[in-house]
Amino acid sequence: MIVLVLGLGLLAQCEPQVTLKQTRRGAIYLPAVYKAPRQPLLGIAASWNGGADAVRLTRADWYLNWSHYPSIATNAAFVPMINIYVPDDAAESDYVMGANEPNVAAQVNLCPADYVATWREIEIRYSNRKLVAPGVGDAGNVACVSPSGIVQPEISGLSWLIDFRDYYIQAYGRLPQIDVISFHCYMPPESPCDYRIATSRFVALAKSWGVSEVWVTEFDAGKWGAQNPQYLIDILAYWRTVPMITRIAYYQDFSYPAVSGDGNNSALTNAAGQLTVYGELYK
Fold it and tell me: What domains, with CATH codes, occur in the chain?
């Protein structure tokens, strides 16, 4: 009897280690390869304070800049964002993102009912793209009224999205187009976001709405002097275990606090355009 041996080929260096199991088919033995879950695409929320350096030096897959047109010369994909005013021509991309932190007063600062008409306009003007729901902060400080009339003095990101969907249904008698749910997660002292709890909540919401992707469109390992490289290691490892998390974007800004550098903040690059310990880990 002749036994055929099939070559496995070389696994790409970046592939996770796999377990091989021999599967019998008649007289031929074929190796069955089990691939690890899809890894999230690593991106950058790119401010003017080192965003271009961070995209380039970490070899990011994609980036956002809170605008509808790109600002960096790079091979990384750009995803446009539409906040309040809907432009005629957002940059080419498979996706269009909604407003940045509408439940945070220092950002877009909009209640769910106030964004419904804008979202409908986005749906009409960009009907050929996938739509990413507004990137809500896990915690918020905007006072909004729910469709049932309940005042929420500090509306959370989860509540904002739920109320937004309900207001949209009231206004148009149909479900809004939401292809991706997006949230932000900053560790204390900046924001009290527990990444495991937040992830489970937004993933559960996505599943209940039939949405297949969840993006973390802003996070970092602790600004304002809260140094914690191990946190970055842990959070990246965790998100690799959540198949619905398909993209993440690290917030890059070396200006927090005023003195920049490895020992002062958690930026990916410093003012000299060099990778920090966080940048090395993220790369």
Answer: 37-282 (3.20.20)
